[in-house]
Amino acid sequence: MKKFLSKNIELNERLSINQLLALHTYQKNYKGHIYLLFNHDMITLESLPRLVSFSLTMNPKCELQLIVEGKNPQQTLNDLTKCIHLKKYKIAQ
How far is 70 from 59, CA to CA, in rounded Å? Predict the structure, then answer.
């Protein structure tokens, strides 16, 4: 059964291209949907160019919301939070 969960995350700086690539890669391997919400704009992590453009509109210090739809959304939120907060995080495949 698919479930929805969300989590607010505070950023201290802009997301790096490596973090964006890790988020995008995670989405490609996830059987569900993951969305980012910032300033009333929401995007999916499926399109890397849109994800990069979206990240450029975010303030260096801001709060964004991760929304996960799929199986085991809590584990997915935990993985994505690690990806965002750690500079050298690698997605396990």
Answer: 29
State the sign of the Cα–Cα–Cα–Cα dihedral 70, 26, 76, 17: negative
Residue-wise pLDDT tens for the chain (93 aa)?
678 999 999 888 888 899 999 999 999 999 999 999 998 999 999 999 999 999 998 888 889 999 999 989 999 999 999 888 765 434 444
Distance CA 79, CA 73 (A): 10
Q: Which of 53, 63, 54 is nearest to 12 (CA)?
A: 63
The model's pTM is 0.82
Of the candidates 47, 79, 59, the one whose C-alpha atom is nearest the C-alpha of residue 13 is 59
Strand partners, 62: 11
